[in-house]
Design brief:
Distance between the termini: 116 Å
Largest sheet: 8 strands, mixed
Length: about 550
C-alpha cells in the first residue's frame, strides 16, 4: 500500500470516528432523561365526598399535577423519603424517559473520542518515524555527494600539481641546456648544483625523520617517568601501610605496660644489659605524661641526666626520705580523713589522688648497692614493707629494680617478706634479642611476666616505642576524666623549699618563669588560681 493510500485511510478513519462522536452526542440529548410519576394532592373534606366543599377542594388542589422521580415515588413513606404515605396523595400516571438509550450514546461518544486520540497519536508517531528516516537518508545522500565532490577536487588538485611540477622541470631543463650552450655555465657546475639540491633534499628528509624520532623519544621518556612516579606512589602507599601495621603491632605489645603502671608495687629484674634501665625510663616517661611526681632513688646516678623528676643520689637524702616516708603516709591518711566531701567525691578523690599532694612514683634503682653506699638496710626494708601493704590508696606506687642473681639477698632483709616480694608482680628481662636471636646491644627485649594476666614471654621493641598513649579505652577514659577536672596543686614542702631557693638565687622571676620552673620540678601543670597562690607564697 502506497504512502498516499495510507494517509487517505488514516484521515477517513479519523473522519468516521468524528462523525460517530457527533452522532452519539446528538443521540444522547433528551428533554426528559429520567422516569417521572405524575401525582395529585386531593385532601378529603369533612363534609363528605359528594359535598360542595369536596368539589371546591378538588378544583383547587386535585386538578394541579405534580411530578416526582420514580425512585422517590417507589420509596414513599419509607425512611429518608420526601413523600409521606398519605391518603390525599394519589398516583395519576407514569411518565417514562423519552430517550432510554442515552447512556449507551454517551458511552459511544467516549469510545469514539478515545479512538480519535489513538488514531492521531499513531499518525503522529508514524510521521515522526518517517520524517527521521527521510532526514537520515537525506544526510547520508548529501554526505556521499560531498565526499565524491571532495575526492574529485583532491584528484584535480594533485593532477594540477603534477602537471605544474612537470612543466617546471621541463622549463628548468631547457633553461639549463640554453645556459650551457650559451657558455654561461659548464656541465660540471650544473651537475654540482644538481647534486647540492639532491643533498639538500636528503638532509631535509633526514631532519624530518629525526624530528619524528625525537617526539617518539619524548613520549617514551614521559611514559617512563609516569611509570616511575606510579611505582613511587605505590611503594609509598605500601610503606605507609607497613608503618601503620608496625605501629599497631607496637601498640599491641605495649598494652601490658599500662597494666604495670596501674600496679602499686612491681619488680624489674634481669642480667646486666638485658633492658631494665630502658624499661624503667619508658615507665617513668609514661607516668610523667599521666601527671605523676617521680622520685628516683639511685646512689650511682647523675641527677643532671634526669629532667622533670626528683633524684635522690646522696646517702643522706635517701636516708631522710626513708625516715620521713611513714610520717608522710600518716599525714596523707589524716588528710583524707579530714576531707569534708560526700562519699562519691571522696572515692573519686582517692582514685585520682586529688587533695593528697598528688600521685608519687618511687623507683628504687640499683637496690643491691644501697648497703655499699651506707644506706641502712632496716630503713629501706621497712619502706619495702609499707610498699607491699597499704600505700596504694594513698597515691604511691613503687618499682624495685634488682639483678636476678641478688633477688634473694634483697628479700632476705625483709624478715619474712621474702615470699611476698617473690609473689609480687614482676618482669624478668631475659636478654636483648637481635633479628636472628643473638644477644645484641640494641633490638628487642624478651620479657617474662609474673603476677600479670599475660603469662607468656613477650618480645618487645623498647627502642622504638610509639609516642601515642592511646592504646586502650581504659587509659583514654582515665586520661579524659583526669583532664576534665581541675589540676590539683602540689603542696610538698620540699618543692616549695626548692622553689624558694630558686627565687632567692635569680631574684624576681616572672609568672611565666615561675610556672615553667614549677612544672619542670613537680611534673604538675598549674592553673591560674594555683599560680596566684604559689606567687603569693613565694612573696612575688
Amino acid at each position: 500500500m502506497s504512502k498516499g493510500v495510507n494517509a487517505v485511510v488514516e484521515l477517513a478513519t479519523i473522519a468516521a470516528l468524528f462523525g460517530a462522536t457527533v452522532f452519539c452526542t446528538i443521540s444522547s440529548l433528551s428533554k426528559q432523561p429520567y422516569d417521572l410519576v405524575e401525582i395529585r394532592f386531593c385532601p378529603p373534606s369533612a363534609n363528605g365526598i359528594k359535598s360542595k366543599q369536596q368539589k371546591n377542594l378538588d378544583r383547587q388542589y386535585c386538578s394541579v399535577p405534580r411530578f416526582v422521580l420514580r425512585e422517590e415515588w417507589d420509596m414513599r413513606g419509607l425512611f429518608g423519603s420526601r413523600i409521606p404515605e398519605r391518603e390525599d396523595v394519589q398516583f395519576k400516571r407514569l411518565l417514562p424517559t423519552d430517550n432510554p438509550n442515552q447512556h449507551w450514546a454517551l458511552t459511544g461518544t467516549a469510545v469514539s473520542l478515545a479512538a480519535i486520540s489513538l488514531a492521531i497519536y499513531t499518525r503522529n508517531s508514524s510521521l515522526q518515524s518517517k520524517y527521521y528516516s527521510w532526514l537520515e537518508e537525506t544526510k547520508t545522500t548529501n554526505f556521499e555527494l560531498w565526499q565524491d565532490s571532495k575526492s574529485q577536487r583532491d584528484l584535480k588538485t594533485v593532477a594540477t600539481q603534477i602537471n605544474t611540477q612537470f612543466k617546471a622541470d621541463i622549463y628548468s631543463a631547457v633553461d639549463s641546456q640554453n645556459r650551457v650552450e650559451a657558455g654561461l655555465i659548464s656541465t660540471e657546475r650544473l651537475a654540482q648544483e644538481q647534486q647540492m639540491q639532491d643533498n639538500l633534499g636528503l638532509t631535509q628528509y633526514e631532519l624530518m625523520i629525526a624530528e619524528f624520532r625525537r617526539k617518539i623519544a619524548e613520549e617514551e621518556l614521559a611514559k617512563a617517568r609516569a611509570e616511575k612516579e606510579k611505582e613511587k606512589v605505590l611503594n609509598a602507599k605500601d610503606s605507609k601501610v607497613a608503618k601503620e601495621s608496625n605501629k599497631l603491632e607496637l601498640e599491641e605489645q605495649y598494652r601490658w605496660i599500662y597494666k604495670l603502671l596501674k600496679l602499686p608495687f612491681r619488680v624489674l629484674s634481669g642480667e646486666q644489659g638485658s633492658g631494665k634501665s630502658t624499661l624503667e625510663r619508658l615507665m617513668i616517661r609514661l607516668l610523667k605524661e599521666d601527671g605523676w611526681y617521680v622520685v628516683i632513688i639511685n646512689p650511682e646516678t647523675n641527677p643532671d641526666v634526669w629532667s622533670g623528676v626528683k633524684v635522690l643520689a646522696d646517702v643522706e637524702e635517701i636516708t631522710e626520705f626513708f625516715k620521713a616516708f611513714p610520717e608522710t603516709i600518716r599525714s596523707r591518711q589524716q588528710h583524707a580523713r579530714n576531707l569534708k566531701i560526700d562519699e562519691d567525691d571522696y572515692l573519686d578523690t582517692l582514685e585520682d589522688k586529688q587533695g593528697l599532694d598528688g600521685k608519687v612514683a618511687v623507683f628504687l634503682m640499683e637496690a643491691n648497692t644501697y648497703e655499699v653506699h651506707g644506706v641502712e638496710p632496716v630503713l629501706w626494708a621497712d619502706f619495702l614493707k609499707q610498699s607491699l601493704t597499704n600505700i596504694r590508696k594513698w597515691g604511691y606506687t613503687v618499682c624495685l629494680t634488682a639483678h636476678s642473681d641478688n633477688q634473694t639477698s634483697v628479700a632476705s632483709k625483709l624478715k619474712g617478706f621474702s615470699a611476698m616480694i617473690d609473689d609480687a608482680p614482676r618482669v624478668d628481662c631475659v636478654a636483648k634479642a637481635g633479628e636472628n636471636g643473638e644477644a645484641t646491644s640494641s633490638g628487642k627485649a624478651l620479657l617474662k611476666m609474673k603476677g600479670i594476666r599475660d603469662k607468656e614471654p613477650l618480645e618487645v621493641d623498647l627502642y622504638n616505642y610509639p609516642r601515642s598513649k592511646k592504646f586502650d579505652s581504659e587509659s583514654a577514659t582515665s586520661t579524659s576524666k583526669k583532664s576534665s577536672r581541675t589540676t590539683p596543686a602540689a603542696t610538698s614542702g620540699d618543692w616549695y623549699e626548692e622553689m624558694q631557693e630558686w627565687v632567692n638565687e635569680i631574684g624576681t622571676p616572672s609568672s611565666v618563669n615561675v610556672k615553667a620552673k614549677w612544672e619542670s620540678l613537680t611534673g604538675h601543670t598549674l592553673n591560674s588560681e594555683g599560680l596566684r597562690e604559689l606567687m603569693k607564697h613565694l612573696g612575688l
